[in-house]
Amino acid sequence: MSLALCALSHTPVMGVHQPADEVVARVEAALDDARAFVADVDPDLVVVFAPDHYNGFLYDLMPSFCIGAQATAIGDYGTSAGPLPVDRAAARSLASAVLDAGVDVAFSERMTVDHGCAQPLDLLFGGIDTVPVVPVFINCVAEPLGPVSRVRLLGEAVGRAAAALDRRVLLLGSGGLSHDPPVPRLTEAPPEVVERLISGRNPTPEERAARQDRVFDAALAYAAGTSDLMPLNPEWDRRFLEVLGGGDLAQLDSWSNESFVQEAGHSSHEVRTWIAVHAALGAMGPYEVRSTFYEAIPEWIAGFGVTTAETRGR
Ligand SMILES: O=C(O)/C=C/c1cccc(O)c1O
Ligand SMILES: [Fe+2]
């Protein structure tokens, strides 16, 4: 049995509107390090913790957490589309163990995932279908959100259950650090957008293209400094990464949901996926960070990070 961790930011703007060449080169180098780490781990199962952006999980029924036993990627923003090779037995076993541990995770035989799940698999494995996976959805955008302490408990329960599988498991977390892209919010959106957040599954190709273009336009304005989107917060990002690296994740329990939004933007809640993977790895003993990268990249509307870690002494 072994557990290892890779956490990275996703952003749909990557490859569309690029930052300066040297920034792209530094990100590529960090991803190369992560790919080498993952190749060395040689996982036979990837448990991927990912948010969703109103593609698979909408307000008709919004769980805090959900484990998928069958899942399909929609292929938004040029990411891979199609069925994920989900290990159904492993998914069932993880879900049972997490429920036994007192964390009320939902369970899906028809999960839909978006770029939040597909992009890290594309970047690290060259596709979504190369290694068996178990997708774990964490609600990071649809308020109201539970406290981050619950995410830590979810991660710990998944970590203990994954260790009991006697497999080489990569715990993969996908989410931006500080960022506040133009993702609509139920309490502020106009009625037609509210309806989309509740029941807007399967938009037409034209509707999807319009939505994606809005994000690309917002990224261009953000990079040009002509946007009123909230600035990235590299100080907050570094403080957060330091806590994760130190291993005492319970410190984060006192970070209120409001403080995430005020200091680092609404979508900074995507760091819930980072908390979950670190808690999962930490559940089996102290860990060591093997590589870490951080850069604030306005062109991608992302505090962009890549971290790898494994159990100490491995
Ligand atoms: O359009 C969406 O659904 C999300 C866009 C986005 C933009 C920047 C960073 C992210 O993490 C995103 O999901
Ligand atoms: Fe996102």
UniProtKB/TrEMBL annotation:
Its EC number is 1.13.11.16. It holds the Pfam family LigB. It is an enzyme of class 1 (oxidoreductase). CDD domains: MhpB_like. One of its GO terms (molecular function) is 3-carboxyethylcatechol 2,3-dioxygenase activity. It catalyses: 3-(2,3-dihydroxyphenyl)propanoate + O2 = (2Z,4E)-2-hydroxy-6-oxonona-2,4-dienedioate + H(+); (2E)-3-(2,3-dihydroxyphenyl)prop-2-enoate + O2 = (2Z,4E,7E)-2-hydroxy-6-oxonona-2,4,7-trienedioate + H(+). GO terms for biological process: 3-phenylpropionate catabolic process. Its cofactor is Fe(2+). Keywords: Aromatic hydrocarbons catabolism, Dioxygenase, Iron, Oxidoreductase. Residues 7-305 form the Extradiol ring-cleavage dioxygenase class III enzyme subunit B domain. The active site is at residues 115, 179. Pathway: Aromatic compound metabolism; 3-phenylpropanoate degradation. The keyword Oxidoreductase applies. Catalyzes the non-heme iron(II)-dependent oxidative cleavage of 2,3-dihydroxyphenylpropionic acid and 2,3-dihydroxicinnamic acid into 2-hydroxy-6-ketononadienedioate and 2-hydroxy-6-ketononatrienedioate, respectively. NCBIfam families: PRK13370.1-4. HAMAP family: MhpB. Homotetramer. Belongs to the LigB/MhpB extradiol dioxygenase family. This is 2,3-dihydroxyphenylpropionate/2,3-dihydroxicinnamic acid 1,2-dioxygenase. The lineage of its organism: Bacteria, Bacillati, Actinomycetota, Actinomycetes, Geodermatophilales.
